[in-house]
Write a structure and sequence with these properties.
heterodimer, A: alpha/beta, ABC transporter transmembrane region fold, 11% strand, B: alpha/beta, Rossmann fold, 2 domains, six-stranded mixed beta sheet, four-stranded antiparallel beta sheet, 20 helices, 10 strands, elongated
Chain lengths: 584, 615
């Protein structure tokens, strides 16, 4: 399945983003080119002023210079303001598109397949690497404006004194190009700095995800000590990175001073003779530092460009293997204000369940825990229980059946037709540790489905949640999660069950829902499901479930040991007896 | 730790100072190095234009070429020296800045880890990452900028003005007025963007909170066909974020615009004043150029002060939030200390205990959480009503070394009681006493040392198996670890790992049951006097659970234990039974006595099942 993805160059991605935002890009280009070229006028005004001063010491009309300077300054400020106003939505859209595209692709991944990076890393990639990429695109505007500046500035200087221009600027560009080569080293250092930064971020995430365990173990001090160690490593890496960057900056700074010094050396004689004026010197000095600054920016941009490549690569790594190479930069409408939501794509047809056949299914999780050659059939209206001791592969089997994990062999047939993934309205699923989101209970149940009070009532009732809801201050509108109320483990499981039932799917799949429920609630849940004649596929080792089962799939070491009724399995399989008798 | 004043203040100068004092003082040496190299480099910056003036005037006066060449050489030398010193200064500054922020970060982490659970239950890991990493990183900019650039630039600014005054009082005066007005203008627009940046950070935290949460719930979302909903939710938060980002950028750039305008005025000033003084023969052409250059030199500090103040705007918000976090005190105060004997079982005595969850702990902050991260709290839904007690006038005594089976329906207060045993919360009335000592009189670390809790939600770090067992305690020998793994039946599993105990535990690498076994192994590494097992074996299948029973016998020997269960099977080893109902004792007694009495609730439970009786 894993076709090697065609690698797309940084430039292709950038071009696609620019083409996508072409109008905005052009408007931005106009403003930012103005921002960078207006200083040309300032240099020329300074030259004219000093030349005029030297020629007519007494009767200089300084007022025109004052007015001119103020006008150019006023215009410069105005284009900067305009530039930012057009730049803000431009940057925000590009960052938004990249984040959205990665996010959509991550949701496309098989739900139980690994994310490709620890969650903290993935989030930091989506946050920071995206910003780097946005800089890469955005700064191409600066490059444009600054290039225009350099071309015009060099033409002006060349006209004033061609020999001097060549003597000063040619070696200057060579030195600056050479220092660019040092940038490769800088990139290495930067990568090291980022890696150690990611380690710190991951640890912070985990510390705050495991606070209770850390407190129970009284390990706060030790964990902080570990954190400090990682922090010190990070500091070393960052310091190496920063100091190298600063040394590079210093070279640029020296180049300007040396350049000015060289001008002074070269023009000493001409100045004495008056063939090189103070005004000429003023414009040379002014453009010299601007040009060096710009060349420095070019180096900076090239590094950012390289970094953009690294960041895009990191984003691509998060994508599923079968995602298109262009997936990162697929254009989308990105309205900045809320718009009427377009109607959802029509879901796959319901296709009422007759039989679900699992045939020779093999599937692994994390290359370790696996299921091999599992086969069984679920018929409409039946109650199937998958059981086995821990590590026997129960969850992996369910995930394989649902297509939440990649299947390595075998197939799953829905009414005889091959089904890659099973989702509502065919199948709905509640995981072993269901995750709810920080939102209202209602929103958690709906997850985007239309509100239907009858359906809502039915699913809340079937999930044995009806007694809890009135106890919440705002009923179904109660916020849960950090912002709102805490749910108990049982409540959490039952909200998750209601969320699943609301989908009114043909087949209900529970992964050991009962471990968070007490026996009575569990009994009630199964009874209510039986009342609505639901077809269910359930992982459990509880008697309440086993007694109810039409068939039991007994797993051992990733293989189906036996399939049959409880009596049959109890009579013939000691493993089943052990599982059964473990219970009171 | 700086005492954090009210977080609402808009210009927390005192907070800056407190931060600086706390985190820079330990690095005096580097700070001095930085100061010296900084001062020298600024002095040399001021010398450069003087040489150029000398050069220009000498050229105008047609003085010998050798003099001009000497001046040019001197200029080059002083510039190179200046650059070198600047690098040294900024190296020192970065070092100082990073050490300071690293320390601050560690202090924050420590502070947060020690805060009570009501704090952690009301915040997501994502939000705390943003505080500890995001905000603090903004501060690292603040530290190095404030130390080197802001102070350095202030020095340069002063230097330029002093030289101008020495040159001519009229020029000195006009440039001083100019610089003062420029700074005033900057200050006027400086605060404009702060509220927008603060809002920007909040909204970005919400955006990433949702993103993280949905990625964590990927399996649920995929299998429920809710990808479209997740996408729309993300876009909604993105759109809500934009106005703050836009306003922050636009208001933020007003500084730059004001800067450009001021400098146009400054340059115009030089042209006006310079040409007037030149006309009066008060100035040479070189001196006019000198003023021109010094005015440009003013641009650098004023410009940089501009960007630094912009950074400060961002840092302001960060500092306010960090101060807020630092000001959050754990509601649990350490007591004087208890003299519990190590290695001995503890007697538990609960006296008139009443407890309700603090009302505001549910609603403190604006953030997201992952509900699944929260412990399955065994509290009933009345917990949402602030004044309803989860536990009501509860009293019982458990003698040292005995095992108590704690039964009750969902919501009867079992988990809450377990949390009070660990002193995650303090009761509103009554007390929990261990060996006659109120938990509030002991130090928190003593409680955590002598009491341990295993819940059904196991938190694993993506660190090595060893670190997950010991929580980074290097003093525990490997044999001890293997022994603990052996006792819980995980030795075989651990032997099969590529790197043994050094194998990194990735999330999802262990099944629910195996994680639970690992949590049991953690207990074997410690020597608590009281063990609380809260539904600790619920994820184990019966066969594995039986395996663990043996280990448990050994673990509980010589210790007091409270075992919470929904199922009767789990508490077969209990000496005493306590049945809770709505936070009150429904029945209590020794297990044998209750079994012998056919009229007891416990006997009824054994006959009919837990829920039928208690319903």
């Amino acid at each position: 399945m894993s076709k090697a993805r065609v690698k797309i160059t940084t430039w292709t991605h950038m071009r696609r983003l620019i083409v996508w935002q072409r109008r905005s890009y052009l408007v931005n280009a106009f403003f930012w080119t103005s921002v960078f070229t207006l200083p040309l006028l300032r240099g020329l005004i300074a030259k004219a002023f000093f030349d005029a001063l030297a020629q007519q010491p007494a009767g200089l009309n300084a007022l025109s210079f004052v007015a001119l300077t103020l006008a150019v300054g006023g215009a410069s400020g105005a284009v900067v303001l305009g530039g930012v106003i057009v730049n803000a939505p431009f940057r925000f859209r590009i960052g938004g598109l990249l984040r959205r595209n990665v996010f959509v692709q991550l949701l496309e991944k098989r739900g139980a397949a690994p994310l490709g990076a620890p969650l903290g890393d993935a989030i930091s990639t989506l946050r920071d690497d995206t910003d780097v990429a946005v800089d890469g695109v955005d700064w191409s505007l600066d490059i444009l404006g600054r290039t225009v500046f350099i071309v015009v500035a060099l033409s002006i200087l060349f006209a004033i004194n061609a020999r001097l221009t060549a003597l000063v600027f040619i070696p200057l560009s060579i030195v600056l190009s050479l220092t660019y080569l040092l940038g490769a080293r800088l990139e290495r250092l930067r990568r090291a700095a980022r890696t150690s930064t990611a380690r710190v971020t991951t640890l912070i995430a985990e510390m705050f995800g495991s606070t209770q365990s850390i407190q129970v173990a009284g390990a706060e001090g030790r964990v902080v000590a570990h954190f400090k160690r990682l922090g010190a490593e990070r500091q070393g890496a960052v310091l190496r990175d920063t100091v190298t960057a600063q040394a590079l900056e210093a070279i640029y700074g020296n180049v300007v001073s040396l350049g000015t010094g060289v001008i002074l050396l070269l023009v000493a004689n001409q100045m004495r003779s008056g063939s090189f004026t103070v005004g000429d010197f003023a414009v040379f000095a002014a453009y010299l530092s601007e040009v060096a600054g710009i060349t420095q920016f070019f180096g900076h941009f090239l590094n950012t460009y390289r970094q953009t490549g690294v960041s895009l690569e990191r984003m691509s790594k998060l994508l599923p293997e079968n995602a298109s190479s262009h997936a990162l930069t697929i254009p989308q409408a990105m309205p900045l204000t809320a718009t009427a939501r377009p109607p959802r794509a029509i879901p796959i047809s319901r296709d009422a369940l007759q039989t679900l056949t699992v045939r020779d299914l093999s599937c692994t999780f994390d290359n370790a825990r696996g299921i091999e050659n599992a086969s069984f059939t679920v018929r409409r209206g039946s109650f199937t229980v998958i059981t086995g001791r821990i590590g026997s592969g129960k969850t992996t089997l369910l995930r394989g059946v649902l297509g939440l994990l990649e299947r390595t062999a075998g197939e799953v047939l829905w009414n005889g037709a091959i089904a890659d993934t099973l989702e509502p309205p065919r199948v709905a699923y509640t995981a072993q540790n269901p995750t709810l989101l920080s939102d209202t209970i209602l929103e958690n149940i709906l997850l985007g489905e239309e509100v239907d009070s009858g359906r809502l009532e039915r699913s809340i009732h079937a999930a044995v949640l009806e007694a809890d809801i009135p106890n919440f201050e705002l009923g179904l509108q109660t916020q849960i999660g950090a912002k709102g109320v805490k749910l108990s483990g049982g409540q959490l499981s039952r909200v998750a069950a209601a969320r699943m039932l609301y989908r009114e799917a043909e087949l209900l799949v529970f992964d050991d829902l009962s471990s968070a429920l007490d026996v009575g609630t569990e009994q009630l849940l199964w009874e209510r499901l039986a009342q609505v004649k639901a077809t269910a596929l359930v992982v459990s080792h509880r008697r309440a479930a086993l007694q109810r089962a039409d068939q039991i799939v007994l797993l051992g070491d990733g293989r189906v040991t036996a399939i049959g009724s409880l009596e049959h399995l109890l009579a013939h399989y000691p493993e089943m007896q052990r599982l059964w008798s473990g219970e009171l | 730790m700086p005492a954090a004043p009210s977080p609402q203040k808009s210009l927390p100068l005192r907070e800056y100072w407190a931060l600086l004092r706390t985190y820079l003082l330990p690095q005096r040496g580097t700070v001095v190095l930085m100061a010296v190299s900084l001062t020298l480099s600024i002095a040399l910056t001021l010398v450069g234009p003087q040489i150029v003036r000398f050069f220009l005037d000498s050229a105008q006066a047609k003085r010998p070429e050798s003099e001009l060449l000497t001046a040019a050489g001197l200029f080059i030398l002083s510039s190179v020296a200046q650059q070198g010193l600047a690098v040294l200064a900024s190296y020192a500054a970065t070092r100082v800045g990073w050490s300071a922020t690293n320390n601050l970060r560690a202090d924050l982490v420590e502070h947060c880890l020690k805060l009570d659970l009501s704090f952690h239950k009301s915040r997501t890991p994502g939000e705390l990452i943003e505080r500890v990493d995001g905000d603090v990183s903004t501060l690292s900019v603040f530290f190095s900028n404030l130390t080197i650039d802001l102070i350095g630039n202030a020095l340069l600014l002063t230097g330029v003005l002093v030289v101008m005054w020495l040159e001519d009082w009229r020029v000195g005066l006009s440039l001083t007025v100019f610089a003062a007005l420029t700074l005033l203008a900057f200050n006027a627009v400086r605060g404009l963007a702060t509220p927008h940046w603060k809002r920007d950070r909040e909204l970005s935290a919400q955006f990433y909170g949702f993103l993280g949460e949905t990625l964590q719930a990927r399996e649920d979302i995929r299998s429920l066909g809710a990808s479209g909903w997740a996408h729309d939710g993300l876009m909604k938060r993105w759109q809500a974020w934009y106005p703050a980002r836009r306003d922050g950028s636009v208001y933020g750039v007003t500084m730059w615009v004001v800067f450009i305008w001021s400098f146009a005025i400054g340059e115009a000033l030089v042209f006006g004043v310079g040409s007037a003084l030149y006309a009066q023969r008060a100035f040479s052409l070189g001196t006019v150029y000198l003023i021109f250059q010094y005015t440009a030199l003013l641009a650098e500090p004023l410009e940089q002060i501009r960007t630094q103040l912009e950074q400060l705007q961002k840092a302001d918000a960060g500092i306010a939030r960090i101060a807020e976090l630092m000001a959050t005190k754990s509601v649990l105060r350490d007591g004087a200390g208890a003299n519990w004997r190590s290695g001995a079982a503890l007697e538990v005595s609960v006296q008139n205990l009443s407890f309700a969850y603090p009302a505001d702990s549910n609603k403190v902050t604006s953030s997201h959480t992952d509900v699944s991260d929260a412990d399955p709290s065994d509290t009933n839904s009345s917990e949402t009503l602030a004044n309803d007690n989860v536990l009501e006038e509860l009293s019982f005594t458990l003698q040292a070394g005995r095992v108590l089976g704690l039964l009750g329906r969902t919501g009867s207060g079992k988990t809450t009681l377990a949390r009070l045993m660990m002193r995650f919360y303090d009761p509103q009335r009554g007390a929990v006493l261990l060996d006659g000592i109120d938990l509030r009189d002991a130090r928190l670390e003593q409680v955590r040392d002598r009491v341990t809790l295993v819940t059904q939600n196991i938190e694993l770090l993506s660190a090595s198996v060893r670190d997950n067992l010991t929580f980074f305690d290097p003093s525990i020998a490997d044999e001890t670890l293997w022994d603990a793994l052996e006792r819980v039946g995980l030795r075989g599993w651990a032997r099969g790992l590529d790197l043994g105990l050094d194998t990194t535990v990735e999330s999802g690498a262990l099944s629910g049951g195996e994680s639970q076994l690992l949590a049991f192994a953690r207990v074997f590494l410690r020597d608590p006097g009281l063990i609380v097992l809260d539904e600790a074996s619920s994820k184990l299948d019966p066969a594995t659970e039986a395996l663990l029973e043996r280990a448990m016998t050994e673990l509980l020997r010589g210790r007091t234990a409270i075992i919470i269960a929904h199922r009767l099977k789990t508490i077969e080893r209990a000496d005493d039974i306590l049945i809770l109902e709505r936070g009150r004792v429904l029945e209590t007694g020794t297990r044998k006595a209750l079994m012998a009495n056919p009229d007891s609730v416990f006997s009824a439970l054994r006959r009919k099942g837990l829920d039928e009786v208690l319903a």
